[in-house]
Amino acid sequence: MTTEPTGLFQGLAPLLANRTVILTVSANGTGQVTLNVIPKKVKDDESDALTTALCITASPEELDRDLPAQLREFTKVHAKAACNIQRVKDELAAAEKAEREAADEKRAKKAKAKTVPPAPAPAKPQATLGLFDQSEADAEDATADIGGRDEHVSVATCRSSDYPD
After folding, report:
1. What's the average model confidence in pLDDT over 79-102?
2. What's the start-to-end Cα distance of the chain, in Å?
3. CB burial class (10 A; 0-12, 13-18, 19+) of residue 12?
4. Sign of CA dihedral 77, 78, 84, 85
5. Which residues have a Cβ under 8 Å from the Cβ of 123 and sit 6 or more positions away?
6. Residue 41 CB neighbour total at 10 angstroms
7. What is the rounded distance in angstroms from the CA atom of residue 113 to the CA atom of residue 23?
8. How does pLDDT run across 14-65, given as a tens digit for each residue?
9. I need a labelling partner for 63 at 20 to 30 A (CA). Which of 29, 40, 121, 135 fits?
10. Which domains does the chain have, with CATH numbers?
11. Residue environment code for 72-90, b if the CB has 16+ CB neighbours within 10 A, otherwise e
12. Distance (Å, rounded) from C-alpha 54 to C-alpha 77?
């Protein structure tokens, strides 16, 4: 069976294990004392909730009697808050990682689907026709409309070899 801490420093010991704590004590003119317990940040990006001060104003007798219980409660709440904040940070980090991985997977699938198809084979080069040359399609018989009637016209093909030098 463990006993509850009964003194000021026994109540603060769990909190002091992880961080520095500043204590300020002042008396006002009415016989009361104000005690401030101010936890300092461990890291710059740490939540401000973990540095919330405990401020108690009471008579010296009330502080002697009730302060250890107040410190135990403050330490428990502080430890629980630190644990909760860390768990939330871990969950957010895991969610961000899963989201990044899903986005990377989506980009990879998109890139895979966008593969460039092979270029078509180049067309056969066409022979260049001279001034009097005709293509094979033109060399066939052609039909002409002459004076409103259709007549069949033969087209002759001339080659440069047909002419003397």
Report:
1. 82
2. 128
3. buried
4. positive
5. none
6. 13
7. 64
8. 777 778 888 899 998 899 999 998 888 877 777 777 778 888 899 999 988 8
9. 40
10. 8-101 (3.10.450)
11. bebbeebeeebeeeeeeee
12. 11
Per-residue tokens: 11: 């109540």
**In angstroms, rounded to a whole number, what is the distance separating the alpha carbons of residues 49 and 155?**
100
Query: Are 71 and 12 spatial neighbours (Cβ–Cβ below 8 Å)?
Result: yes
Q: Are the CB atoms for 19 and 40 separated by under 8 Å?
A: yes
Give the tokens for residue 5: 């801490």
Among residues 155, 149, 106, 153, the alpha carbon closest in space to that of 134 is found at: 155
Cβ burial of 5 (10 Å; 0-12, 13-18, 19+) is middle
Q: Are 135 and 128 in contact (CB under 8 A)?
A: no
